[in-house]
Amino acid sequence: MKYTLAPILFAALIALAGCAQFRNVYPQLTETQAPLVADCQRLGVIAETANADHLSSYMARQSMENRVRERAVQLGATHIVWLHRTDTSATAQAFRCAAD
User: Is residue 59 within 8 Å of 85, Cβ to Cβ?
Assistant: First the structure.
């Protein structure tokens, strides 16, 4: 019984860890398109590059994009428009829009 329970627990742990990646850690930030933020205040352009320390290129890209989001939130942004995203670099324009 011990030998069959361990792989099941391990698989469940991996599944839970994978699902955690899909939660929105920046709910106050909306990703949108440029025409939709034409009347908003521009806060600046944010650029990041991928960190080669990650085990996979997917995780490196997610971490890089989250750093862009985090910097936008620190600027007080409510919206971002992605200008450029690849596996190794990302650039976004940050905006602060008035609440409707």
Answer: no
Spatial distance between the Cα atoms of 61 and 70, rounded to a whole number of angstroms: 14
pLDDT for 80 equals 97
In the predicted structure, residue 73 carries a pLDDT above the cut 80? yes
Residue in this structure with the two tokens 């008035």, named with its chain if needed: 98
Q: Which strands form 79-85's sheet, in the order they lie side by side?
A: 30-31, 79-85, 89-96, 41-49
Tokens matching residue 29: 């930030």
Q: Which residues contact 90 (CB under 8 A, 6 or more apart)?
A: 47, 48, 61, 64, 65, 68, 82, 84
